[in-house]
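Teaching soon. Invent one.


***
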Amino acid sequence: MSGFASLRLSLSAAFLGALLYSPLAGAQSAAAPAQGVVTLGPSGLPLPRFVSLKPARVNSRVGPGANYSVNWMYVKAGLPMEVIQEFDTWRRVRDADGSEGWINQSMLSGRRTAIVAPWQRGKGGQINLMKSPDKDSRVVAIIEPGVMGTIKACDGQWCEMTLDGHTGWLAQSTVWGAYPGERVKD
């Protein structure tokens, strides 16, 4: 299975036509919410939270407004993002690589997606997509780190996902797009 995590262009690299990849951050965000603690942003939605990009091209800016310069251009619809701050219609987001910027809320979707073990990308290894949420279940597919898919549900320990046409279960600790212990329903 081929896949990729985040594709983004720096403003200067966009003019040169070069793709830029950042070194990956740790497995989970440092801003992961404490279990049972919910902080609401000005929108009334929890902070932090995961969302995904709506269009295939989205500018990330250095500040919350169209007058701020663009620091990244994301070039993959559905890419998971973590909203960490809100200001008016702008959302400060963090990607799986740990890079941060401001994106207008109209470019974001509540559809939940995730990247499989982006912290292992380029280091080898594979992750089993299981038929049911059990480590002894039958393997449906073998997934390479960095593959992006859609979250159907998470029960706090396992996430049911669709990846490259295969649907199955992954340990929740192996996905960037759902917090440890978080429950997600489609």
